[in-house]
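Consider what follows.

. . .
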Amino acid sequence: MNISELVKAGTRVLSDSSDSPRLDAELLLGVVLRKSRTQLITYGDEAVGREDEQLFEELLAKRLQGQPVAHITGSREFWSIPFKVSSATLVPRPETELLVEQALSHIPIDEAVRVLDLGTGSGAIIIAIATERPHAELHATDVSEAALTIARNNGSRCDTKISWHCGSWYAPFHNECFDIIVSNPPYIGTDETGVLDPELKFEPKQALYSGRDGLDDIRLIVSQAPAHLNPDGRLLLEHGYGQGEAVREIFAAHGFAEISTFCDLSGQPRVTAGRLPPARH
């Protein structure tokens, strides 16, 4: 079979189990043949050897089992940057780019603003910020050393200067304060497990679930933020689309001002931000 025929065959195989069967087939075949999606089209008439066909079939089988394409290929694009991912990290998702956009709106281009990313995972958020704000002083934490290994690798490949710290949330810092704190923490409730995207079973549970209502880690992050923010510092958190009101209430309860929730490209409430007034510091 040639490349075009294999893409069509893979698309048919995945048609009932994926929302984007052709894209998935192209990405998987691209990994096997070490070709971009554009090259797959350009060289569509090129014959594919049986060994590569078999490997493609194996990858399709993994996708049929619900395994995320990013975990199968080991890579996912975020902020136009290819990131290495593994089963130790969440797969970076497009909606999280909203968190990066909102953070950048509060970070001057030419100042050494101190920025902290809590629960960095693959490092996607802090690395995206680093590419846009090279003068910022950037730090990131994660409780998983395996995730930090991935993040460090991603950071080195992007030639960024980020300090990586192993520990739970603020644990690596005692009396240190920051101007901006960002996080995409776990926010799925344990009661929601039966109605979730099946792909999530392949991602680290500690990065997904946070108590019955999904807000345990958000409560902890917000409650401890005043001790780690400079006066007028800002906290920005990603959360579930149905949690905006509850998260705003948590921010208000801990003295934050200018609390706002922003919607992603699908129109879903996705990021809440607040400023710590000097009087609360």
